[in-house]
Give the backbone structure.
Amino acid sequence: MQAQSLSRLRRTGNWEQTAWLFTRISAMVLLVMALFHLLYMHVALGMDAVSFQLIAYRWQFLGWRLFDLVLLILGWLHGANGMRVVLDDYVHSPFARTVARTLLLIITATLILMGTFVVATFKPS
Amino acid sequence: MAAITGIFRAVTYRGREGQIAWMLHRITGVGVFLFLAMHITNVFLMLFPSHVFNSLAALYHSVPFKLLSIFGLYFGLLYHALNGVRVMIVDFWPGAGKYQVPLWRVQLVIVALIFVPSAALMLARMF
């Protein structure tokens, strides 16, 4: 049954299938990156260590900037796609759905631009 | 009242383990999503003089926020991550669907094994 339904999905290439696959592929990457991020910042370093100076130090390294950027974009897109699915479950009227999806899209664009901007342009002084 | 009826229906609906697993996945997912919105906005403050970020960080270093970060964010992300692994096992491994309940129990044990010692460490550091 499982194999059958999967192969049927594969034949009908569409947006939902891409989103379904994206959720799982990003999940595998986030499983490593997000858990590492939290275990490192919260468990190993501790929340008290988090300060402007710590992040400025980290962002001296291109590797950490790239790590943060990838985590930001993948994490947010994974979450936004999940929110789209959740909203579809509870928001039924076409008008409300359009409003909710448009808001989600605007917030997504704004936060990804904000995050990318700060990671890319921050100058340690 | 409608909310109470809704919660009552959700809990008494006979979906058993699978439904509870799904409900927790959704609640923790939305929770982490909301946190992330806040988190990205906070990190954006790095573009301003250092005291702006640090004065907000001081708020996050208060006891209520630390407790929320341990029992909300940290537990939530751990559950969501490991439940996601179980969902993917059931999706990609033919026949694994039959074992979704035992898999869920194993998953909860793994969550506890990671969460309890690390949460204890973070709590010990607080006091």
